[in-house]
């Protein structure tokens, strides 16, 4: 089972990807991790990528896509993979699609978690980290996992521990910048999603599209996802 997974920052995509990884024993491949691995190992592609990163420039697609293909062809991906974080725009979608076809890697599913921009932003701004355990979910904008309010402060709903925020979660400029790329239907990430949707409509190679409503809780979204994958 080979999957492309799309969803804006704040949609819970990473959480759902982890659930799929465990359920189907597929590798959850994040594009950022591929860069870090190639750079740390000093591969030729990693060295080339690092030159652009050091200059604060985007790594060209003709370096990124070969890195991704190499990772997807590793032995641990034999049972399937879930690619998260790439493609980010429609041009990358077209190039990746062609590269997968050339490498004879069949894409089975494109999964999209749909969530409006303001809700996605609120979820990022509302995240709170428990100092006792980062796996204790707390979010001031999600009713089901709202932190507990005691006499003095807001504390972890699970253990009553102190809560903190990540600095990047509170950077609205950075959030808006990432979301501007994702929600761009002309050339951005949603344009990439639509590219694959059009391909699926043509009945191309059995590609299936799964759309999920990202507004409910983690359990509800994962139940819907697993149900649709079982059909």
Structural class: alpha/beta
Number of strands: 10
Evaluate the radius of gyration: 19 Å
What is the end-to-end distance? 14 Å
Q: Which homologous superfamily in CATH is the superfamily of the domain at 2-26 and 79-116 and 172-229?
A: P-loop containing nucleotide triphosphate hydrolases
Topology as H/E string? EHEHHHEHEHEEEEEHHEH
CATH architecture identity of the domain at 2-26 and 79-116 and 172-229: 3-Layer(aba) Sandwich
Explain how this protein is built.
The protein is an alpha/beta fold and 231 residues long. It has a domain at 2-26 and 79-116 and 172-229: Rossmann fold (3-Layer(aba) Sandwich), CATH 3.40.50. 45% of the residues lie in helices and 16% in strands. The chain is built from 9 helices and 10 strands. The protein has helices at 13-24, 31-41, 44-54, 61-72, 90-102, 117-126, 172-182, 189-201, 218-229; strands spanning 2-6, 27-30, 81-84, 109-114, 127-130, 138-139, 148-149, 154-155, 163-164, 208-213. Strand 5 (127-130) and strand 6 (138-139) form a beta hairpin. The mean pLDDT is 93.
What's the topology here?
Elements: E1 2-6, H1 13-24, E2 27-30, H2 31-41, H3 44-54, H4 61-72, E3 81-84, H5 90-102, E4 109-114, H6 117-126, E5 127-130, E6 138-139, E7 148-149, E8 154-155, E9 163-164, H7 172-182, H8 189-201, E10 208-213, H9 218-229
Parallel strand pairs: 1-3, 1-4, 2-3, 4-10
Antiparallel strand pairs: 5-6, 5-9, 7-8
Compact overview of the structure:
The protein is α/β, with parallel strands linked by helices and 231 residues long. It contains nine helices and ten strands.
């Amino acid at each position: 089972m080979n999957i492309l997974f799309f969803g804006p920052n704040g949609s819970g995509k990473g959480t759902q990807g982890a659930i799929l990884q465990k359920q189907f024993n597929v590798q959850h491949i994040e594009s950022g991790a591929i860069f870090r691995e190639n750079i740390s190992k000093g591969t030729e592609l990693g060295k080339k990528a690092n030159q652009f990163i050091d200059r604060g420039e985007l790594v060209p697609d003709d370096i990124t896509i070969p890195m991704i293909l190499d990772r997807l062809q590793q032995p641990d991906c034999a049972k399937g993979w879930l690619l998260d974080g790439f493609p980010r725009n429609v041009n990358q979608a077209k190039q990746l699609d062609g590269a997968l076809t050339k490498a004879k890697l069949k894409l089975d599913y494109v999964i999209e978690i749909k969530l409006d921009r303001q809700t996605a932003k609120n979820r990022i701004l509302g995240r709170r980290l428990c100092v006792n355990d980062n796996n204790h979910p707390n979010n001031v904008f999600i009713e089901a996992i709202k932190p507990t309010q005691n006499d003095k402060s807001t504390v972890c709903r699970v253990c009553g521990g102190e809560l903190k925020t990540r600095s990047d979660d509170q950077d609205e400029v950075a959030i808006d910048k990432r979301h501007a790329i994702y929600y761009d239907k002309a050339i951005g990430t949603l344009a990439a999603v639509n590219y694959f949707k059009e391909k699926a409509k043509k009945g191309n190679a059995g590609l299936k599209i799964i759309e999920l409503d990202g507004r409910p809780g983690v359990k509800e979204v994962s139940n819907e996802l697993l149900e649709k994958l079982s059909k």
